[in-house]
Every structure is written in C-alpha cells, then in structure tokens.
Write the structure tokens for this entry.
Amino acid sequence: MNDLQIANSVTPLPIQQVAENIGINSDQLEFYGKYKAKLPLDLIREEKLEHSNLILVTAITPTPAGEGKTTVTIGLNDGLNRIGKSSIAVIREPSLGPVFGIKGGAAGGGWSQVIPMEDINLHFTGDFHAIEKANNLLSALIDNNIQSKTRNLGIDPRTVIWKRAMDMNDRALRNTVVGLGGKNGGIPRETGFNITAASEVMAILCMSKDLEDLKARFAKIYIGDRFDGSPVFASELNAQGAMATLMKEAIKPNLVQTLGHYPAIIHGGPFANIAQGTNSILATKMGLSLGDYVVTEAGFGSDLGAEKFFNIKSRAAGLSPKAVVLVATIRALKYHGGKPLKELTSEDVSALENGFPNLLRHVESIRSFGIPVVIAVNVFSSDSEEEKRRLLAYCQEIGVPASLSEGWAKGGEGCEDLGHLVVKAAESCEYRFSPTYSLEDSVLEKIKKVARTIYGASDAVLSQTAQTQLKKIEKLGMSNLPVCIAKTQKSLSDNEKLIGRPRDFVITIREFEIAAGAGFIIPIAGDILRMPGLPETPSAESVDIDSQGVISGLF
C-alpha cells in the first residue's frame, strides 16, 4: 500500500479520546471535526518545561526527495510510547507548495504517519490561510497609504520590501508590478510574492509566546523607507491589531494523532532553507507541558534546521534539547559518494563509504552545541544487509550510538531500539546547549561562525549589495539580532552542486532581508529563492478526487 492507502486503513480515535490520554478534558478542546482540535494556550505550564525531555530530529544533507525526518520523528515518538515513555510528537504543518510540487506531503510515511493525512496535507485547520490573509492585509494597507492624499506617510514605493504571500509554488509571481489601471489602480510599483511558509508572518507566529506578543511583533515589521530615508514600520499603519485578529485561532496549536493513536501536535510551517524551519515555540512548549518527552523535527539537514533550532528558536524560548537524532539514509550517503540519483537502489558499498564524510560533518556540527547525538538509519527496502552492516559499523567507529529506524515498515515497533538509545542519551545530558555565536557579535562575525562551525566553510563574504544593506541594518539598530541564513538544502555550501563534504569553500551572502518582527536578520546565500517553482512534472498532476470524494495521488 502507498502512504495514503496505509493512512486510510486505520480508523482514527475520536480526538477527545486522544486528548484524555494526555490529561486534557474535552471541554478544553476546540473541535475541527471528529479528528482534529485546537488547544488553548493556557495548557502551557512553564514550570514543567525543564523537567521534560526535548528531542530534536535532524538529518544529513538530503537528496531532492528528502530523507524521512518526519517519518523518523513519528516512528520514534510511537516507539518511545511503546517502551513506556509519555511522548508527544510536535511537528510542522505541510505547505501546499511541496505537496503539489516535488516532495509531496509532510505527514510522515508508511506506518509512521499522522492522521487524518489528507486534511493535514491540504487545508487542515486553516492556519496557513490566516497567515496569508494577515500578510496580504498589510500589503493592502501599504498600497492604500501610498496612494492616499490625506494620510500619506511619505513611503517611497521603491523601498518597500514587504511582499504578498501565497501558499503555492508559483515562479511567475516572484517579481510582479502592482497598481496598474490608472487612477483606479493605485500607484504602480514593483513587488512580488513569497510562498506563505517564507512569510515573516509565519516566522512571527512560530516565535511568539502569546497573542499580545504576536501583536507586538507585527507592529515591529519593517516595511521600507520614506522619501527622507527614515524607516517605516507596520505600527505606523496601525496594522498590528487587525493582523492579530486574523490570527486569533491560528495561534493555537493543533492536536491530531499518529497511526499508533498517540498524540501529535502540529503548528506552523516555516521552511528551513529560507526561514527558521521548525514548528512554533508555543507548540513545543505545549508538548513539553503535556508529556515527559517531546520529539520534534527541524527541516532539511542539520546545517539549516538544527542550526536555526538552536541559535534562534531555543535561544529565544529558553529551551535546550536533551538529545539530537541525526537521520541518515543509505541512499543519500551513496548519492554523496557519487552515485547517480537513478541508481541509488542498487547495492554499492564503495559509494556508501565515499559518502561517510557528509555524515561526519553533520555529527561534528551537532557536537559543537554540546548535546548528545544519536544516528537513526532510516531504512528503505532497497538497502542491502551489507550496506546496513557497514553503516552501523562506521557509526561505531566515530563513536556515535546508532540504530536502524524501521518506522516506515513497522511503525513504533520498528523504532523501539532507537527509542532506548534516545532515552539513554537524554538521561546522560548534563548541560544546556552552547550557541554558535553571541548576539553581541557583529552580523558578519555571526555569519562567519555559522559558515565555519556548521557548514565547514573557510570563510564568508558579503557582496557589494549586501554590504550596503548591512549598513542599513546597523543604522536601524538591529545588529544584535540572530541570523537566519537562507541557503540551498542540497549542499553544505551555497552551491547545490557541491555534494558530499565540500572543503575550502567560501559562503557568499548575496543580500539581506530584515525580519524585525520575527526577531532575526536573513542573509541570503547563493541563488536561493523565497518563492519556489514547480518541477517539470509536478505532484499535482497525480492528485485526483472521485465522485464519492475519495482522494488519490497524495503522498
């Protein structure tokens, strides 16, 4: 069976029953049908956070199809519950961009999924729509003010950096012109769209601690400049109240269940290559308040998701993971060892060994934070016994505990051994994590430290455009913010063609974006884009629905 067929073969428990299993009364739930509910923020218990175990799942540099972090996250969560631990999976909401693009959905895979799978991968509880509307309301207010005769703030249309958002891969909207149509159309100017997962509104949702904090962060959004060069913020358009009102329900985390009928919280969905790549602080704290273990994931490889999880999210939230699970696959290691994508299902121990340096680089990066690491070998049916033996032996050689993760084929049962290793690692963790840089470091020094310590680069440099923009950031007094580097997920470097473990490379920052409301600066490396495009053959072409409303083609 494919993922959708597997998901539909299991009858979900009523969501109130799942909630009761973690001590939530049904009258505390806001129901979205039978199998989904929103959780009130007053369930968060700050005093319990230090006594729960936060487990971060990350990965080596992935192939274009991804390496199954969400599958491992859900399988590990169910495995921990099966060995007697009270564990809750806390993950991101899928974006329609990947769902209809190349990667497919983000509800896990095989027998390690969250359900109802179709709902989660499609409109779910409407959070993405609320984010999109709040984002685009600010856009409408900006353009309305530019053409106003009585309340004009003097915004220079050429400096407006705020873009509209849409949750779809649509390259035609990257660069647009708005305001055409003469007097009725407004003032023409160049602008564009970001995918919703890359919107600052998404980032703000995932960094906020409550509704008031959300509103305060909206007020801090930097829009652009006046003709006299002074900055303009969303507060000057009185935008924050209406934007927060649109987010009234979206700020609440969502409760669903795994195929093993264990609880899972899903909330927020920023990408890791162009945003911070992890679910909301609120959802993570909610999970830690309700369970003894929380298994969460951060997008793409550890050079992106895990780095930002530690240096941005954990720092802001006052959280520190007790263990990091590094997902590795034999197919990805063979790819990094030089084997073509189309041949990854055939046995090749030599190519596997040639890919080991990529795994080691990620281990070294995680160790720099001072947190124990466990390797999860996410098993595929094409993996040979010899390949599995060799990879596990290598993990032993570099001193990292490792286990086969067979959650795709066996659900939680296939991750019980991994669960025991994770418990042992968490119990051995005696320290809080060490950040890669200090907030007092200069912006360039922060970038250099991430580039050297996490990517393995020799240096980082700024383009002429980035140098000019950095002066603007310093003038705005934002140099003390953390950096959220936008970079390709396909390589440790900023060049997607440099697979494996590249050495002696330099990271080039092309330009900066400012996310003052979210509380970080976005240095953009290489050719990374904040509005992806569809592939030559989009996944959307396989999705269909019959006369009875039965969906097919989601994966």
Summary: The CA atoms of residues 361 and 501 lie 7 Å apart. The two ends are 11 Å apart (CA to CA).
